[in-house]
């Protein structure tokens, strides 16, 4: 809180100004999505999806969740919901690959008991038939999505108050006639 003086001379404490949390949330989403997507697109240098676990826990998960909470503070319900939801998603995605949670082992055991289970249809489509293109095209789409998120994060950082130049963005807000 800071002590301020009003127009008529009265003194009052004002709430501290909060910065724009959207660039943090967008950056956490972008990097985590990018790393998993280059694996899914078939990059030969990223052979296992577990490479994303650290990012999914701390940057895509925790940092995005925090950005979502700060969006609530700014009054942006959409941003708060989007960032908090993606943060929760990335935290739960990381949990799949952490042995202590036992999630991956539980799915392996279920597949051995009932190999035609509907919950394993995605595994069949993506892993048992690697030439189908679903995973690769999803990875390419994820890379494009990450690049768009990084652009928007940079546009949020380069404001007229903080930079000598800004990036063009499109106003998607609802117009009242």
From TrEMBL:
One of its GO terms (molecular function) is acetate transmembrane transporter activity. It comes from the Eukaryota. PROSITE patterns: GPR1_FUN34_YAAH. It holds the Pfam family Gpr1_Fun34_YaaH. The keyword Transmembrane applies. InterPro entries: AceTr, Gpr1/Fun34/SatP-like, GPR1_FUN34_YAAH. The chain crosses the membrane at residues 21-39, 51-70, 82-103, 139-158. It is a multi-pass membrane protein. Keywords: Membrane, Transmembrane, Transmembrane helix. GO terms for cellular component: plasma membrane. Belongs to the acetate uptake transporter (AceTr) (TC 2.A.96) family. This is 14231_t:CDS:1.
């Amino acid at each position: 809180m800071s002590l301020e003086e009003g127009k008529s001379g009265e003194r009052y404490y004002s709430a501290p100004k909060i910065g724009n949390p959207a660039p943090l949330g967008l950056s956490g989403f972008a990097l985590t999505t990018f790393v998993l997507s280059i694996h899914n697109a078939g990059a030969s240098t990223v052979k296992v999806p577990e490479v994303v676990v650290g990012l999914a826990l701390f940057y895509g998960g925790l940092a995005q969740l925090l950005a979502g909470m700060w969006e609530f503070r700014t009054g942006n319900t959409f941003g708060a919901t989007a960032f908090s939801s993606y943060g929760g998603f990335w935290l739960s995605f990381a949990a799949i690959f952490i042995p202590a949670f036992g999630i991956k082992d539980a799915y392996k055991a279920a597949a051995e008991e009932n190999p035609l289970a509907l919950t394993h249809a995605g595994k069949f489509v993506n892993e048992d038939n690697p030439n189908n293109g679903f995973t690769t095209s999803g990875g390419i789409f994820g890379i494009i999505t990450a690049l768009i998120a990084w652009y928007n994060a940079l546009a949020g950082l380069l404001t007229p108050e903080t930079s000598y130049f800004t990036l063009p963005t499109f106003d998607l807000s609802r117009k009242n006639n």
